[in-house]
C-alpha cells in the first residue's frame, strides 16, 4: 500500500467529524459547563407556548393519517433547537422508559448556527416536555436550582419535525423543490425495515434491494421527493435520519492520480479472477489498454486482437479511450459502489478485445465495409475456439432507413445465425449527437431512430435509461438532471418512427447516465450523472467516466457473460431470451404504459421507446416461491416439400406446462401474471426487392399461442393451424386479444408478451404451442433450404405477486419425479 494512500480507507457514506479528546486521569475533576443565563419564568412561558403549538400540529397530523399508509407506534417527531455550544443537552432529550429516542442531530454549519435535534415521541408520551417545563418553572431542587434545569435551560425552541428536520447532510444537498425526485439514504430505526417497506410501497417510493446493517440502524436507498418523505415521517416511526445518496464518480474524479491508484490497488486485493477461461465478453471497439491494473488480470495478451496488424491492439486518444472505458464497465459495471464496498469481486468471465477502429493518422474505414469488418473481427474464435462468448459492439452509424436491413445489420444477423457457430451479439442502439435541452427529452428520442446496425433482428439491441439524478458536486449548484429517475437516458435512440413491420428496438435498457442543465445552456454529462470506469492512460490517472448507450451496452455484455458462465448449456438464443424475459419497466415507464388504459397503438409506441424494460441477473437465473420460470430449448422443421410441389408448413410443437393446479386453484380469483418470451435466429436475405411475401428478409418466422382455459387440446391445435393460415394470407392473427401487446409482438425474431388474469383461469392454460409461418426458406425452394431445422428458446414465467402460496416447489418436485422415472 503506497504511503500516500490512507490507512483507513475513506468511505463515501460515513465521515468522521469527531474531535480527538485529551486523555483524562481517573481522579481528574471535570468542571461542568455553565448553563445558559436565562430569565426562568419568561423562558418557561415561551418554551411551553412553542411546545404547545408543536403538540397541536402533531395531533392534527396524527388525526389526518391515512389508515392504509400509517405503520408503527403512533407518535410524531419534534425538532428541538439548542445553542450550538450546548451539546451536553442532547443526552437529556430522550427517555428510554417513554420509548423516546433522539434519532438525528444536525450540526451547525457556521459559527452561531443552532444545534438541531430530532426526537421521536410516542403519542402516549406527548406531554413529556410540558411536564419538564412546568417543573422547571415552579419547582426547585434541594440545592436551590430549578428542577430539570440542565435540560430545559438549554432548549431554545421546539417545533413539529419534517423530513428536512431529519436531514443530516449539508443544507445545500437538500432538494430545492418539494417534488424533485432524488436518491436518499434512509437510515431506519432498529427493527423497522419491514414496516418501512410497507409504507414505502403505499407511497410509491422506489427502493433498492440491498441494505447496510449496523447495531441500531439499517440503511437503504430510496428514490423519492421531499414532499413524499414528509408523508413518510408523518405516517410512521421508522426513519432515524435522511441523507443524500452520495456515491457518485465526482468523488473519485476529484482525486489525484496517486490517490486513484491507491483505490485501484485496494480493489485488486479483493479481485478474484475466474479460474476457468471458458467464458468471455468480447469487445469490438477501439482496442483496450491492457496495462490498466484493473483490466490486466482479466485480459490476457493473447486475447488482444486487431483487424489491421499495422494498427496494433492498444487503445488510442483518437477515440478518447472508448474501448478501455467499455472494458471497465463490462467487467465491473459502475466502479463507484465497487470501490466504496468491501466485498470480494469475482467476475465469472474473462475479457477479449478486438480493435476495429483505426488510428487517427490512418485511413478511416469505409462505412459500407463494416459488415465485413464485423465478420473479420470475430478473431478470438480462432485463438480460443472452446470459449463461449458474448460479443459486444457500441460502434454505430446513422441509419435513415427506419428499420430496413442494411448490409451491416444483415451481416450481424448472418453472424448470429451461422448454423455451425451460433453467436450472441449485443449492439448499442446509438446516441443522439446534438445538444439537448429538457424540452427535447422523449420528444427528440422518439424522433431519432436507432442507429445502424442495431436494427439487426438476431442481435440484442441495448438502449439506455437512467436512475442517476443526484447532483451533489458544489461546482454545479442549481443544475438539474434532464431525465427523471427511471426514464429514458437523454441521448438514447428508439424505433418509434420505424415502419410497422420492423422489429421492436431497443430490446432492453441498461443504465446510461444523465445530462445536467442550468436552465439556459444545453445539457452536459457532468461526473455526478455518469458511470465511473477505467481510463486508457493509467500512468496519468486510473478513472474516467462513461455514459449513454455505450455504458448500457457494456452493462448488458457483463450480464450476458454472467449468464453464460452460470448456465453452460444455454444457447445464445436462450441467453438473449433470458435477458429480455428478466426485464421489467421501471415505475416511471410502467406509469406511462398503464396510462394508455389498454390502447394498443400507444402501448406499442412505448415499447418501441423502452423495449421490454431493465433486465436483472437475479431474475434471469432464479425462481422464487411465488415466481416460477420454465425454459425450453427445442427445434422444429418449419417447412417441407414433396417432389416439385410448393413447400408447405410442416411442424408445430406443443409444450405442456406443468402448472401447480392445486396451488393456483387455491388462489381462486387472485390476479396472477403470465409472461412468455420466444427467441430464435433467422437466416437473412437482405436484398431490397420490395419486401413482398416472395422476397422476405427472414428465412422463417415462429409464433407462440397459449391454450385458452375453456378449450380442449384438439381445439387448441386447430386454432394454431388457423392462426398460421391467417398470417400467411395476410389476415389479422388471433390469440392476442387478451394479451398486453397482442399480435404486435410478432415482429422480428424475438417475441415477448404479458397476460394477467385469475389464478383459476391460468391453471387451465396448461399448454403453449410454437408454430412456423412463412419465410424465404418456403417461398424460394430453389435455394434448397426448405428442409432446414429451426431451433428456438422458449421462456415462460408465472407470478403470483403478493401471494404467499408456493408455486415453485410443486413443479420442481413433479419435474424431479418425472425425470427419475424416465431415467
Structure at a glance:
With 823 residues, the chain is α+β, with helices and mostly antiparallel strands.
How does this structure look, described?
The two termini are 57 Å apart. Helix 14 (548-566) packs across helix 15 (572-581). Helix 12 (407-417) links the parallel strand 12 (388-393) and strand 13 (424-428). 44% of the residues are buried. The strands form 8 sheets. Strands 9, 10, 11, 12, 13, 14, 16 and 17 form an 8-stranded mixed β-sheet that branches. Strands 2-3-1-4 form a 4-stranded antiparallel β-sheet, with helices on both faces. Mean pLDDT is 88; it is low at 1-34 and 816-823. The protein has 23 helices and 29 strands. The chain is of the alpha+beta class. The radius of gyration is 31 Å and the shape is globular. The longest helix has 24 residues, at 40-63.
Name the shape in a single word.
globular
Helical region count? 23
Fraction in beta strands: 15-25%
Give the tally of β-strands.
Answer: 29
Taking pLDDT < 50 over at least 5 consecutive residues as the criterion, the unreliable ranges are: 1-34, 816-823
Task: Give me the Rg, rounded.
Answer: 31 Å
Structural class: alpha+beta
* Percent range of helical residues: 25-40%
Average pLDDT for all residues: 88
Our measurement of the CA-to-CA distance between the termini, rounded to an integer number of angstroms, reads: 57 Å
Oligomeric description of these chains: single chain
The major beta sheet can be summarized as: 8 strands, mixed
Amino acid at each position: 500500500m503506497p504511503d500516500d494512500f490512507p490507512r483507513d480507507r475513506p468511505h463515501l457514506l460515513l465521515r468522521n467529524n469527531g474531535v480527538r479528546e485529551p486523555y483524562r486521569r481517573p481522579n481528574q475533576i471535570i468542571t461542568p459547563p455553565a448553563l445558559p443565563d436565562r430569565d426562568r419564568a419568561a423562558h418557561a412561558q415561551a418554551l411551553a407556548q412553542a411546545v404547545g403549538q408543536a403538540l397541536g400540529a402533531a395531533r392534527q397530523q396524527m388525526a389526518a393519517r391515512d389508515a392504509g399508509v400509517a405503520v408503527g407506534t403512533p407518535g410524531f417527531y419534534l425538532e428541538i433547537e439548542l445553542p450550538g455550544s450546548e451539546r451536553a443537552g442532547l443526552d437529556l432529550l430522550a427517555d428510554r422508559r417513554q420509548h423516546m429516542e433522539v434519532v438525528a442531530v444536525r450540526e451547525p454549519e457556521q459559527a452561531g448556527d443552532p444545534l438541531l435535534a430530532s426526537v421521536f415521541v410516542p403519542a402516549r408520551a406527548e406531554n413529556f416536555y410540558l411536564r419538564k417545563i412546568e417543573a422547571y418553572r415552579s419547582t426547585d431542587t434541594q440545592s436551590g436550582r430549578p428542577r430539570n434545569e440542565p435540560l430545559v435551560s438549554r432548549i431554545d425552541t421546539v417545533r413539529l419535525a419534517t423530513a428536512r428536520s431529519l436531514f443530516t447532510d449539508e443544507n445545500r444537498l437538500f432538494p430545492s423543490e418539494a417534488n424533485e425526485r432524488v436518491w436518499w439514504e434512509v437510515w431506519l430505526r432498529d427493527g423497522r425495515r419491514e414496516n418501512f417497506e410497507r409504507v414505502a410501497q403505499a407511497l410509491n417510493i422506489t427502493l433498492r434491494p440491498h441494505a447496510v446493517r449496523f447495531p441500531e440502524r439499517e440503511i437503504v436507498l430510496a428514490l423519492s421527493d421531499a414532499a413524499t418523505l414528509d408523508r413518510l415521517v408523518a405516517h410512521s416511526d421508522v426513519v432515524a435520519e435522511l441523507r443524500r445518496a452520495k456515491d457518485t464518480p465526482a468523488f473519485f474524479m476529484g482525486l489525484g492520480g496517486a490517490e486513484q491508484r491507491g483505490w485501484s490497488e485496494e480493489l485488486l486485493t479483493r479481485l478474484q479472477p475466474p479460474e476457468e477461461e471458458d467464458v468471455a465478453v468480447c469487445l469490438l471497439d477501439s482496442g483496450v489498454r491492457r496495462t490498466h491494473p484493473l483490466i490486466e488480470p482479466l485480459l490476457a495478451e493473447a486475447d488482444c486482437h486487431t483487424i489491421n496488424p499495422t494498427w496494433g491492439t492498444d487503445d488510442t486518444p483518437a477515440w478518447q479511450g472508448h474501448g478501455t472505458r467499455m472494458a471497465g464497465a463490462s467487467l465491473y459495471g459502475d466502479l463507484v459502489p465497487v470501490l466504496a464496498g468491501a466485498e470480494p469481486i469475482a467476475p465469472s468471465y474473462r475479457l477479449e478485445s478486438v480493435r476495429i477502429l483505426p488510428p487517427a493518422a490512418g485511413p478511416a474505414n469505409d462505412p459500407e465495409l463494416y459488415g465485413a469488418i464485423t465478420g473479420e473481427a470475430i478473431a478470438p474464435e480462432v485463438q480460443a475456439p472452446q470459449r463461449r462468448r458474448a460479443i459486444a459492439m457500441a460502434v454505430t452509424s446513422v441509419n435513415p432507413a427506419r428499420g430496413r436491413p442494411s448490409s451491416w445489420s444483415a451481416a450481424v444477423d448472418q453472424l448470429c445465425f451461422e448454423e455451425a457457430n451460433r453467436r450472441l451479439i449485443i449492439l448499442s442502439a446509438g446516441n443522439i449527437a446534438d445538444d439537448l435541452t429538457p424540452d427535447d427529452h422523449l420528444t427528440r428520442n422518439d424522433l431519432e431512430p436507432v442507429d445502424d446496425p442495431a436494427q439487426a433482428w438476431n442481435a440484442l439491441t441495448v438502449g439506455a435509461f437512467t436512475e442517476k439524478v443526484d447532483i451533489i458536486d458544489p461546482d454545479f449548484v442549481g443544475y438539474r438532471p434532464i431525465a427523471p429517475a427511471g426514464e429514458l437516458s437523454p441521448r438514447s435512440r428508439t424505433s418509434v418512427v420505424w415502419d410497422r413491420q420492423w422489429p421492436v428496438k431497443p430490446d432492453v435498457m441498461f443504465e446510461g447516465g444523465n445530462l445536467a442543465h442550468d436552465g439556459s445552456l444545453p445539457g452536459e454529462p457532468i461526473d455526478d450523472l455518469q458511470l465511473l470506469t477505467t481510463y486508457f492512460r493509467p500512468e496519468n490517472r486510473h478513472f474516467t467516466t462513461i455514459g449513454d448507450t455505450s455504458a448500457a451496452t457494456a452493462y448488458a455484455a457483463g450480464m450476458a457473460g454472467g449468464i453464460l458462465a452460470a448456465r453452460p448449456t444455454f444457447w445464445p438464443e436462450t441467453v438473449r431470451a433470458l435477458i429480455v424475459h428478466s426485464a421489467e419497466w421501471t415505475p416511471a415507464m410502467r406509469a406511462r404504459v398503464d396510462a394508455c388504459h389498454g390502447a394498443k397503438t400507444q402501448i406499442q409506441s412505448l415499447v418501441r421507446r423502452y423495449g421490454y424494460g431493465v433486465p436483472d441477473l437475479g431474475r434471469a437465473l432464479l425462481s422464487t416461491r411465488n415466481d416460477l420460470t420454465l425454459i425450453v430449448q427445442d427445434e422444429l422443421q418449419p417447412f417441407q416439400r414433396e417432389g416439385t410441389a410448393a413447400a408447405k408448413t410442416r411442424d408445430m410443437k406443443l409444450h405442456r406446462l406443468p402448472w401447480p393446479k392445486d396451488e393456483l386453484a387455491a388462489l381462486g380469483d387472485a390476479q396472477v401474471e403470465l409472461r412468455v418470451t420466444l427467441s430464435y435466429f433467422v437466416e437473412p436475405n437482405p436484398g431490397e426487392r420490395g419486401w413482398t411475401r416472395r422476397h422476405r428478409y427472414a428465412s422463417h418466422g415462429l409464433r407462440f399461442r397459449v391454450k385458452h382455459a375453456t378449450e380442449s387440446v384438439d381445439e387448441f391445435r386447430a386454432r394454431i393451424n388457423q392462426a398460421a393460415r391467417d398470417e400467411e394470407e395476410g389476415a389479422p392473427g388471433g390469440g392476442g386479444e387478451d394479451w398486453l401487446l397482442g399480435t404486435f409482438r410478432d415482429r422480428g425474431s424475438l417475441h415477448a408478451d404479458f397476460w394477467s388474469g385469475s389464478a383459476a383461469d391460468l391453471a387451465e392454460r396448461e399448454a403453449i404451442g410454437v408454430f412456423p409461418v412463412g419465410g424465404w426458406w418456403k417461398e424460394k425452394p430453389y435455394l434448397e433450404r426448405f428442409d432446414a431445422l429451426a431451433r428456438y428458446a422458449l421462456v415462460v414465467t408465472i407470478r403470483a405477486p403478493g401471494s404467499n402460496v408456493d408455486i415453485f416447489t410443486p413443479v420442481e418436485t413433479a419435474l424431479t419425479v418425472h425425470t427419475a422415472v424416465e431415467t
